[in-house]
């Protein structure tokens, strides 16, 4: 029975372990390289803070520099194609905001892998059609929906702060309001809804099974 239940969660369980180990290895290598001074993690370590201005036209070089878009003191801009600016000596605030551009997605996926592993472990321990599995699926579904919105909002806010620290005039460059909701479409909202739906189906199935057993 144990071997059957172990095969039941494959190949998803092995895939979860592979991606989890790959993520842990990447973070460990990045942390060591940052500590040794030869690499970086986010905005910390041996790195410049660079971003490309989104939602703008390209500069052909014949108009005034950046078409009215300039950079703030301490930043340099490349206008050969898109508006790309870098800060060679970033402030601590720029380093933090730059880190927060990608950190939410890393945390989100780490949590998804962990919750998915717990769901699969519950399926192996208690069986696939149990209330424990339904509860794990429900938690994962709500986390995917809520986590996508939160990660998208933090990403948009951090990107907006970085762009405003590099480019002038200071206007809203990033999309911290509608970006999170666009991030939900289409995959996260479908996966999250599927998890919640299958959790409800399993719960109803368990209730029906209990009623049948009670009548026997």
Can you walk through the features of this model?
- This protein has 216 residues and is mainly alpha-helical.
- It has one domain.
- It has six helices and seven strands.
- It has helices spanning 2-8, 12-36, 92-126, 131-166, 179-183, 187-215, and strands spanning 40-41, 44-45, 49-52, 70-71, 75-78, 84-87, 167-168.
- It is elongated and about 80 Å long.
- The two termini are 26 Å apart.
- Mean pLDDT is 85; it is low at 57-66.
Write the layout of secondary structure elements.
Layout: H1 2-8, H2 12-36, E1 40-41, E2 44-45, E3 49-52, E4 70-71, E5 75-78, E6 84-87, H3 92-126, H4 131-166, E7 167-168, H5 179-183, H6 187-215
Antiparallel strand pairs: 1-2, 3-6, 4-7, 5-6
């Amino acid at each position: 029975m144990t071997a059957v239940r172990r095969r039941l969660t494959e190949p998803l369980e092995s895939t979860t372990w592979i991606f989890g180990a790959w993520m842990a290895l990447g973070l460990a290598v990045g942390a060591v390289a940052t500590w040794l001074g030869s690499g970086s993690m986010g905005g910390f370590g041996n790195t410049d803070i660079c971003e490309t201005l989104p939602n703008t036209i390209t500069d052909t070089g014949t108009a005034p520099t950046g078409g009215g878009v300039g950079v703030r003191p301490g930043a340099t801009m490349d206008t050969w194609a898109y508006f790309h600016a870098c800060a060679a000596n970033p402030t601590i605030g720029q380093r933090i905001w730059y880190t927060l551009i990608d950190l939410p997605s890393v945390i989100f996926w780490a949590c998804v892998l962990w919750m998915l592993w717990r769901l699969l472990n519950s399926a192996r321990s208690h069986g696939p059609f149990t209330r424990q599995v339904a509860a794990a699926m429900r938690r994962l579904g709500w986390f995917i929906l809520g986590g996508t919105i939160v990660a998208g909002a933090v990403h948009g806010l951090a990107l907006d702060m970085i762009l405003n620290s590099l480019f002038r005039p200071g206007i809203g460059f990033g999309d911290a309001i509608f970006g999170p909701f666009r991030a939900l479409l289409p995959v996260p909202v479908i996966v999250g809804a599927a998890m919640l739906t299958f959790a409800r189906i399993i719960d109803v199935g368990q209730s029906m099974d209990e009623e049948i057993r009670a009548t026997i």
